[in-house]
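#onboarding

Welcome to the new folks! Below is a worked example of what a typical request in this channel looks like: someone posts a single protein sequence, and someone else replies with the predicted structure as tokens. Don't worry about understanding the tokens yet, we'll cover that in week two.

Example request:
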Amino acid sequence: MAARRQYQELAQQLSAIGAVKRGLGRVLPSECPAGSAAVLGLLDRHGEMRMSRLAELMAIDMSVTSRHVAHVAERGWIDRSADPADKRSRILRLTPAGRDMLADLSERYMNALAHHLADWSDDEVDQLNALLGRLRASFGDCRAAPAAPAVPPPAAPPVLPVPPGEPVEAPAARTTRTPL
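Example response:
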């Protein structure tokens, strides 16, 4: 098991990830802010869904989800059609224009990462991917209520909250998620 100082360092490093996310957010086109990018990414990854499921995946309030959905729908990036099982609900799905926007966002993100990590080896990038994937898996579904730990976690410096509008993979208390 890692020493307390290692957990403190990890907490500080994770807190500082906000700067990386803000840097990546700057590559998004003005017409597609982070919340919109998150909607497109989740519809691409999970397929068509109701708005309630989208809100759950984004871990944000339904009213915030509704604003993001309205934004992308106004631009023709998604289609909102009546749910055959419940006419009061809408099924959200990507349109070809939404897939094109998502491809553009993906290209922008990859170019930004390639630029900022140009001095990293392929092995280092692979190692980072593996470790971040493992970290995510260790936390499981961040939207679910966390189980009480068997052993209290070591005290760590407070992790500052992410400012509103900042894209994050986060528990339900946060307002947005990582777009891609």
